[in-house]
Specification:
Helix content: 10-25%
Strand order of the largest sheet: 12-13-11-14-15-16
Order of helices and strands: EEEEHEEEEEEEHEEEHEHHEHEEHHHEE
Shape: elongated
CATH class of the largest domain: Alpha Beta
CATH superfamily of the largest domain: P-loop containing nucleotide triphosphate hydrolases
CATH topology of the largest domain: Rossmann fold
């Protein structure tokens, strides 16, 4: 089961705006008619309940949306670039991935059908028709399309289950899941037979819940020992934990303490979840004759705040009361939960990562020249033909309107200094 994948997403860039004028027989001076460029396509993640692994991303780690097309004359706007929709399992977290590690959690697709714009397409550039004013009836300026976002993200799948079965290897977790559900995990008499989480639907009358069998934990699991913390994350979303212990082993309290210490060190919130203790293998004589002794050892066990059930996955003894306890705790957990903010039938909102916009207007390049980084000005410079002196005059006035000339003076610019903006440079005078 592949439950983590790093992918690169590239949204489409916006199309350039057009500099154009309407010149027709019946409208020889029809004015500016440059259309706007189309917006670039987004990259959208969609939570799909029919998918349960991230395996496909091992083979396809790149997703690229289409660019918008440029504007045309007669105020014709360019076409919007097609978005690309990528389906992921329900329960997928989205992390910004930089320098080989997670930097920031930007989304959690925990509801079927939930959508997230993981990379937003660039805005289409405005055509010269937008720049008409009282002093410029024939504007020669247009905007270049904005760049689409490019991100490397790590998809991290945390299975959505109500109950998590935890415990040491060979405690009988898989056998119990097989006995109470239709799941068929691998069962054998050697450690680590379960190598990946297994989900099973447990029915109780007209109700049902989902249980997950977590591969066996050992001391040091939170640091990666054994199967390590690779699968502990899958119990972070569960509401109730069932701690399965092999009753035929020595020092039952010590085994309980060891696993609880591991989950506490991995995530302290896990230790606060309601926990049911299931002493398995009641069908064995060495367990059945020691029930009272085990109970007594657990009564004196400091920090144990859970119900205890003696069960046998082999003979099904005690499993029905165990299922009832699971349902009881799940119901209590739901009742404590605050009501969902969205009403039934209300459209699920689309997630959008927060965009960190730079407040810089002018910066000093390493080589020394001042560079204008104000995005509106940069797009205007890229989308206009500044080789024309008339366009340069209009552009200069636009810089004044955007208060960029003031920012240059505040930065200490002097006559003759070189100013960079986009791919164009000019001397300050």
């Amino acid at each position: 089961m592949l439950d983590s994948a790093v992918i690169e997403v590239r949204a489409g860039s916006g199309g350039h705006g057009m500099v154009s004028f309407i010149r027709e027989a019946l409208a020889p001076r029809g004015g500016p008619g440059g259309g706007d460029g189309g917006h670039g396509g987004d990259v959208v993640l969609i939570a799909d309940p029919s998918i349960n692994t991230l395996t496909k991303f091992h083979w396809q780690p790149h997703f690229i949306a289409k660019n918008g097309t440029k504007g045309d004359g007669h105020n014709r706007n360019g076409a919007k670039g097609n978005a690309i929709e990528v389906t992921v399992p329900v329960g997928t977290e989205v992390w910004i991935w930089e320098d080989g590690e997670d930097k920031e959690l930007i989304g959690d697709l925990s509801t079927a059908g939930q959508r997230m714009i993981v990379a937003e397409g660039g805005r289409g550039g405005r055509g010269n028709a937008h720049f008409v004013n009282a002093t410029h009836q024939e504007p020669l300026l247009a905007e270049a399309g904005g760049d689409g976002e490019i991100r490397r993200v790590r998809l991290n799948l945390k299975l959505l289950a109500d109950v998590g079965l935890i415990g040491m290897p060979n405690a009988g977790k898989s056998s119990i899941l097989t006995a109470i559900s239709a799941a068929r995990p691998k069962v054998a008499d050697y450690p680590f037979t379960t190598l990946e989480p297994v989900l099973g639907v447990v029915e109780h009358g007209p109700q049902a819940f989902v249980a997950v069998d977590i591969p066996g934990l050992i001391e040091g699991a939170h640091e990666g020992v054994g199967l390590g913390d690779e699968f502990l994350k899958h119990v972070q979303r569960t509401r109730v934990l069932v701690h399965v212990v092999d009753g035929s082993e020595d020092d039952v309290p010590g085994r309980i303490r060891a696993i609880n210490d591991e989950i506490t060190q991995f995530d302290p919130e896990l230790a606060k979840k309601p926990q049911i203790l299931a002493i398995n293998k009641l069908d064995l004589d060495e367990v059945s004759v020691l029930i009272e002794e085990i109970r007594e050892s657990l009564n004196s066990f400091d920090g144990l705040h859970s119900d205890t059930f003696f069960v046998s996955a082999a003979t099904y003894e005690g499993l029905e009361p165990l299922k009832q306890a699971m349902f009881h705790l799940l119901r209590a957990s739901h009742e404590k939960e605050p009501p969902a903010p969205a009403a039934i039938g209300e459209e699920i909102p689309v997630l959008r990562p927060k965009v960190r916009k730079s407040s810089d207007v002018v910066v000093r390049d390493p080589e020394g020249p001042l560079r204008i980084v104000h995005q509106k000005a940069v797009r205007l410079a890229r989308g206009s033909n500044l080789e024309s002196w008339e366009a340069r005059i209009q552009f200069q006035r636009r810089l004044e309107q955007l208060k960029i000339t003031k920012a240059l003076r505040d930065a200490g610019i002097e006559t003759g200094d070189t100013v960079l903006i986009g791919d164009w440079e000019f001397d300050w005078d």
